[in-house]
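Hi C.,

You asked whether I'd gotten around to modeling the 235-residue construct. I have! Everything is below, sequence then structure, no commentary in between.
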Amino acid sequence: MAIAGKWRTILVLIVLIYLGLAEGEAKQSTVAARKDDPEQQPTPKAWPPQFHSILVMNYTGKLQLIDLWYDWPNGRNFNIIRSQLGDHLLYDLEWNNGTTFYYTLAGDGVVGGVESCRSIQMEVGILRPNWLDGAEYLGQRSVGGFQCNVWQKADFILYYEDVATRRPVHWRFYTGREAHVMTFEVGAVLEDSKWQAPHYCFGSMKDGDAIHSLSSQLDPSMIPLNFGMRGLAAF
């Protein structure tokens, strides 16, 4: 009787494993069918007009923590960047007229109290909420414990969206830089006074001085990345 009971238990386990595998294959078949049939493919959720997100960026092992404030109604986007074990903040302030300011503030612990700023003019504004329209659907993948739908936009970025909540989870850029979305607060707005670039961004500092003083703060890979993200606004 004990042996028979043992075999019944084993048989039940085998059946459960089989059913689990069958269910997994069915899900994979469904995902594959969606990928192959444009009419069944999911579309990425548009960004909310305003949100705040905390991102962990990884670029060849170099880590950064970014406070991202997106404010489409007011035509502005703000990345406040802290490098791992860094003693300062780097501000990346973007406007819909194509202007971007990269600057540091003396009060943030910059060595020697250096105030620095560099401005760049681009031909396009910030990303629209529906900037992912037209992205190519690649199917589902698991990242960071989340089952995600994945899209590729203009051979520039892979965008991972949680299947269950439709929140962004992960971004991977063509350069190898990766963004892990830690928080996503829909409707959060940064107060207007925080959006004002410092006075020395408006002609009180020579370009050469500005570039030199920022050379140790500004990751060179960020500028082409910024151009690329802004370029997506044109698609």
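If it helps when you're writing up: The chain is about 25% helix and 35% strand.

Thanks,
B.
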